[in-house]
Amino acid sequence: MDIFSDIAALSKTVEDITPSERILTSLECRKPRKDEFFRCSPDLQVPVSIYEDKQNRVDYLLGVNVLEEMHALVGVKRVKFVLVATYAGDFFGWPLAIPAEVGANRWHSTAYQAAEESVSKWIRITPKSTHYEIYHRKVKDAKEPVWPNEIRTPADLLRLAFEAGGGDYIENSSHDVIKRLKGAI
Fold first, then answer.
1. If phi over 0 gives left and psi between -120 and 50 gives alpha, with beta otherwise, what is residue 98?
2. Domain-by-domain residue ranges, the chain?
3. d(CA 14, CA 98)
4. Which of 47, 113, 124, 185 lies in the 20 to 30 Å Cα band around 176?
5. CA distance 154 to 44
């Protein structure tokens, strides 16, 4: 018998052969992509202050000890940091601008609206010239998100995103970002 004779064996996936469970060890900090449907967690949303280093594409969580200093140097951005699940089963943290605290524009207000709607239904957002266009997934039996066991509290969410994930955090004036902004390095 050759390899082509056993169609059932060729049809198996890696999961069929060796079942496994994914362990979430970090979270990417980002906005939803225009081609993905997503849901925001109703429980894991926390207001925080961040510094967006747009040149290096890094969001820094700011500790209370550096808020005043960072505000004086470059300003800070108030966001609601939200755990997001994609329809494909991935997770990320969304630093969602809080319209009332950042001088809202249509980008902020439509993103915020989409996040609120996505608590109960699958949403996709597409950028237009001045705002996001919101699309609802029109599937009768769409699956519900299965939230990760590794994230049970807002502290877990922030730790996975800013300590182990795509962001970073600044907790005191000796951080290299503050030194760089002051021209010390």
1. beta
2. 26-181
3. 42
4. 47
5. 6
Rounded Cα–Cα distance for residues 44 and 69 (Å): 28
The number of C-alpha atoms within 13 Å of 151 and in the hemisphere containing its C-beta is 27
Per-residue pLDDT of the chain (185 residues; tens, 9 = 90+): 677 777 777 787 766 767 677 889 999 999 999 999 999 999 999 999 999 998 988 999 999 999 999 999 999 999 999 999 999 999 999 999 988 776 668 888 999 999 999 999 999 999 999 999 999 988 888 899 999 999 999 999 999 999 875 569 999 999 999 999 999 98
pTM for the model: 0.85
Query: Would you list the DSSP string of 10-64?
Result: HT--HHHHS---------EE-PPPTT--EEEEEEEEEEEEEEEETTTTEEEEE-G
